[in-house]
Design brief:
This protein has about 180 residues and is mostly helical. It has one domain. It has helices at about 5-15, 20-25, 30-35, 40-65, 70-80, 85-95, 100-115, 125-150, 170-180. About 35% of the residues are buried.
């Protein structure tokens, strides 16, 4: 868990991240600096992480496996992923699991999030540390996906696919089912 002494240190942590991460979490500085409870910043951070995880899987099936983008997008809107489910599907899509250090970074923040969601008392320093860990996880996720597939799910994904031809929708459906997606679309 990161040690974050005050809101200024948390803002510095945010400002030290790459531009893609800062753009993805664009509203975080306002949530930290306006005397709002840190629980709000933490909830926002996890919302943005779940978006990034979905974007990583979507990008992986479209770029790596050449799935039909329209069908994959529709399916991602129906897909329910648990924490372990994301890790399993990520491994299937990219051919290797997330690194342990990346998983641990998010797991520490998830413990704090779970305490907050279940109404437990959580100190401000622990909440700031969890938000900082989420930012670090986003940067690590970006690096791993870029290494595996050549795009970054945290940030702008315009043009990530390239000009490769896509599979038809029927083939995409079966491919995504084989990768571990519950095909309902």
């Amino acid at each position: 868990m990161a040690e974050v002494a005050n809101y200024k240190a948390l803002l510095k942590c945010y400002e030290d991240k790459p531009v893609q991460v800062r753009e993805h979490f664009a509203h975080l500085p306002k949530l930290i600096g306006e005397d709002l409870p840190y629980e709000i910043a933490l909830a926002y951070a996890f919302l943005k992480i779940e978006q990034a995880q979905n974007r990583a899987l979507y990008g992986g099936v479209v770029k790596v496996h050449r799935c039909n983008a329209e069908f994959a997008r529709r399916l991602m809107n129906f897909q329910h992923l648990t924490r372990d489910g994301f890790k399993e599907v990520f491994r299937n899509v990219f051919g290797k699991p997330l690194k342990d250090a990346t998983n641990v970074k998010l797991a520490v923040a998830e413990k704090t999030r779970d305490k907050v969601i279940h109404g437990k008392d959580v100190g401000a320093s622990e909440l700031r540390a969890a938000v900082a860990d989420v930012l670090e996880y986003a940067d690590m996720l970006n690096s791993e996906v870029h290494e595996a597939a050549g795009f970054r799910p945290v940030g702008n994904m315009r043009g990530f696919k390239g000009r490769a031809d896509s599979l038809d929708k029927r083939t995409t459906k079966w491919l995504m089912r084989g990768l571990g997606f519950g095909v309902k679309a």
